Amino acid sequence: MSNVNLYPNFGPRVREKKLACDFNINNTLALQNTKMIKTYVAIDPRHWAKHRNIDDAADGGTISTYTWICMVIHFLQTRQPPILPNLHGIPHSLSPDNLVIHGHNTSFCDDLTKLQEFGRANRETLGGLLYAFFRKFGFEFDYRQQVISIRSGRILTRKEKGWDQGLEGQQLLCVEEPFDVQRNLGNSANEEAVKGLILEFQRAVHVILETKGNLKNVYASYRQKEDLCPNPPLYYYHDPYTYLRPFSIDNNNRKRGPLCI
């Protein structure tokens, strides 16, 4: 297979069986992606994402499962104290010289004996983390200025990343691919899709607060806009572009004003 040309992932669909899968041919970088995700022990958001119709980069114009995973990893890396480490930043025995694939440094720490107790100091509950995840991306994340980077283990600015102009400057969601760092995983989501994502995050926050933590309605299958949120607060369903700059909300689900970042 060494002489086979490199092809990106492609995903045939068997519509009668409602199956979708990705193939790649001679794409060894994708193998490192899989290995990295396997190393991270992370919350899996796919159940919620699939029920809300926001996990289909191919046909739905939203974002891929891989992008969701990167967003969750980033979220867990940036909790205080952090739950997940920055695997790329931890000293490891793998040499960048022998793990350069198509010009990309793909080395990272995968020694689980060093990593298993990393997040022990964080005592947040799973329910609290889920709420904080929705709140972060519904109200706190600055879509106009910020870039998600699990390779760096922190938020980057568009300016320092060089994504403040040109094609990437027009993308509303920026998620850095951890190996091919010039690739934006969020570029599969168009403007309407990002607006929809923000509404879904806001909806989830409101439902959790209104139902005192009952997740049944959070995971409810998407039907129509009026089904999203009964008796929405005043800010709800405003044009999400007004929330591309972050806002804070109090525990009574009241908008308090712009955050200072």
Descriptive labels:
261 residues, alpha+beta, Poly(a)-polymerase, middle domain, two-stranded antiparallel ribbon, 8 helices, 30% helix, globular, disordered N terminus, disordered C terminus, metal ion binding, transferase
Q: How much is the average pLDDT?
A: 72
* Domains, number: 1
CATH level-3 fold name: Poly(a)-polymerase, middle domain
How many DSSP helices?
8
Percent helix range = 25-40%
Number of strands: 10
CATH architecture annotation name: Orthogonal Bundle
CATH class descriptor name:
Mainly Alpha
* Cα separation of the termini: 49 Å
- How would you sum up the global shape? globular
Described by strand count, sense and barrel closure, the largest sheet is: 2 strands, antiparallel
Task: Tell me what you see in this structure.
The protein has 261 residues and is of the alpha+beta class. It has a single domain (28-52, 59-223, 233-238), classed as Orthogonal Bundle (Poly(a)-polymerase, middle domain). It has helices at residues 28-39, 46-51, 65-77, 112-115, 126-140, 158-161, 166-169, 191-210, and strands at residues 7-10, 13-14, 19-20, 23-25, 100-101, 104-105, 146-149, 154-157, 247-249, 255-258. Strand 7 and strand 8 (154-157) form a beta hairpin. Helix 5 (126-140) packs across helix 8 (191-210). The longest helix is centred in the last third of the chain and has 20 residues, at 191-210. The protein is globular, with a radius of gyration of 19 Å. Residues 1-8, 41-55, 224-243 and 255-261 have low confidence and may be disordered.
